Amino acid sequence: xxxxxxxxxxxxxxxxxxxxxxxxxxxNIQQYDKKVVEGKHQYADFDNARQRANFLKWRSIxxxxxxxxxFEANFIKRGGKVIWANDAEEAIxxxxxxxxxxxxxxxVKSKSMTTEEIHVNKGLEEAGIESIETDLxxxxxxxxxxxxxxxxxxxxxLSKEDVAKTFNEKYNLPLDYTPKQIxxxxxxxxxxxxxRADAGITGANFLIADTGSICVTENExxxxxxxxxxxxxIAIAGIEKIIPSFTDLDLFWPLLATHGTGQNITVYxxxxxxxxxxxxxxxxxxxxxxxxxxxxxxxxAQPDQRQALYCIRCGACLNGCxxxxxxxxxxxxxxxxxxxxSIITPHYSGMKEFKHLSYAxxxxxxxxxxxxxxxxxxxxxxxxxxxxxxxxxxxxxERWIYTFWKKAMLSRRLMNQGGAKAKNFxxxxxxxxxxxxxxxxxxxxxxxxxxxxxxxxxx
Length: 459
Prior knowledge:
The protein is α/β, with parallel strands linked by helices. It folds into three domains: 1-40 and 312-394, no CATH class; 43-294, NagB/RpiA/CoA transferase-like (Rossmann fold, 3-Layer(aba) Sandwich), CATH 3.40.50.10420; 396-457, no CATH class. It has helices at residues 3-16, 19-39, 46-62, 64-77, 88-101, 113-117, 120-126, 136-143, 160-171, 179-196, 222-228, 249-261, 296-300, 316-320, 322-327, 338-349, 351-354, 366-370, 377-390, 396-409, 412-415, 419-435, 449-457; strands at residues 81-85, 106-109, 130-133, 199-202, 206-208, 213-218, 232-238, 242-243, 268-272, 286-292. A hairpin with a 4-residue loop joins β5 (206-208) and β6 (213-218).
C-alpha cells in the first residue's frame, strides 16, 4: 500500500467515528441541499440545460488546442500576457519571477482551487512574499494552517464556535463573538491589505476563447478587490476552464450558482479581458494569465476519462457522495476531494500513489445524478480501477492471488477442488486484512451449490 492510501485509511477511520465532525458536516450539507432545490426553480427544462452544458464542454475539450490558441491571441490583443506552465514548479517559478520583477512584498489572493493545487502560498512564503487569503472561508483555514475542506466551502467542517475559537487564539477576539462581528473584523483588516498589496492573484472559473477574457464568480467581492486595487493581476487557470463563446456564460453561470450554492446567480460575476485602458479608472496596469497543465493533458489522453475535464468545480458531487459525507474532505489527502477528486487526482499526481481514491466509492451513482454537466462520474471511477490494474500498480502477491482466483472461477472442476477447509484458510490468511476489521469474512460451505445440486439429483 502507498503512503497516501495508508493515511487515507487512518484519517477516514478517525473522521467517520467522530460524531461531532459528522454532525457539523451533515448540518452544512443539509443547508446546501435545501438551497439547491430552490435554485433549480429558475429552470423551465433543467435536464435540457444540463445536456446543453455537457455538449458545450465536450466541444471545448475535443477542440481544446484551437480554443486555447484563440484565447491567447485575443487576450494578447488587449495588452495581456499569457504564460504556459507544464507543472506546478513552472507555474510557481513564473509567478515569483513576475512578483520579484515589481519588488512585491504583499499579495492578496482570492479563493482558487488551482492555486491550492500548485501550493502558491507555500511558494510565495519561501520567496519571502506575504500571501493573504481574502475569501472568508479561505482566510479562516489559512489561520488554522489547514487546506480547504471543500471545493466551494473551504471551512465546511467548522462550526461557528470553532471559528470564534480560532479568532480568539489568533487575534484575541472574545469567544462569544457572533459570525457577523467576526466578518466585520475580517472586512476591516482586509481593506487595509487590499490598499497596500503589490499584486493580486485569482483563479478563473471560465476562460472565454472568442473574447480572450477570464471570468471570476464569487459572493463576497474579495476577488474583485484583489483585481481592482493592486497594479498587477495574475490569474491562474487550468487549461480545461476554456469555453468557446461569451454567450455560453448565460448557461454556465446559473448552473454553477445553482449547484455550488443554491443561488439563481452568484453576487459578483466579473469579466476581465486585459489590463486597464486609458479610459478606465481602476484595474491592474499589468495582467497575466497562467495556463496550467499539471497533469491535465495526461487525463486528456484518456478517451474514457477525459470527460472529467468538463467539471466546473461546483462541488455538487461532494455534497451528494455518501463517502465524502462520512470521511470529509481532508481525509482524501489531495487538493480535490470527493468523486471528482478521486477521478482526476490519479492522473494529475500519479496512479500508483492515488489509485486508492478510485476505490473510495459506493458506486451508487449519486455523483453522476447531481452533476450539472452530466459527467458519468461513477463510471469513470471504474475506468480508473481498470487502468490501475492494467498498469500493474498493485503488488505482485495481489496479482498472483487474483490470477489464481480468476483461473479457478473459470473452471468448475478447479472451483470444486481443495475443499472448504482450504478455501477458508486462504480467505483468513490472504484476504482478511483487505476485507476490513469491522466486517466478518464469508464462510465457505462444506459443499458448493453445484456439489449439493448434483448430490440431490443423484438421489
